[in-house]
Amino acid sequence: MNSEMSQYTQPTGTIDSDNPMVAEFAKETAAGAADRREQSIRLYYAVRDGIWYDPYTMNLSTEGLRASTTLTAGRGWCIPKAVLLVGCCRAVGIPARLGFADVRNHLSTKRMRAAMKTDVFFWHGYASIYVNGGWVKATPAFNRELCERFALKPLDFDGINDSLYHSFDLAGNKHMEYLSVRGEYPDVPIDQIRETFQKEYPSDISWSQADFEHDVDQETGRDQTQKSIDA
Q: Which of 43, 165, 182, 191 fits 176 for a cystine, CB–CB 3.0-4.6 Å?
């Protein structure tokens, strides 16, 4: 493996693929797979559905983004979930890196829209995995149950085709629009992300004390449905 490719197999400050817990999770998940493609598929679904998407956990510190932190918490937003998938791939010897794009995302909550003042999510994170001689994009952010609550088709990954979000939901409403590509990196470019967030989002943005699942219930009408049932 050449030096350029080897950087995508090594642990970093955030991608702690050498952490015993991350390594064990990756190896147990990938055990018995016939080849690297099947290993990457198993790892993708383990992170997509085993780790719940929760943007209210946003923390742009090295510790907050670390793969082991997300695995321990069992939840995270798009970047740390991508970090965990990349870390798992590296733990079993599959080269992987982080990709970023600016997107217009229609899966959000009233609280998020009020705080962000925009529906553009800057530096949306995904994983890029080297399988069968080429790089394949994999986006493990939204877990299956969350997709079902928003009437979205869960994003699948076959290790062959890029796994990027659909433009429309199951009802034909706009879901995700890719605005610009930021590129792919061996580690999280934390300083660049912080600079963009400080420029594009209000300085007082914070929802760390809020409950994302409760807000999702309100957004999707599930909260009102439950109240009607209880009544």
A: 165
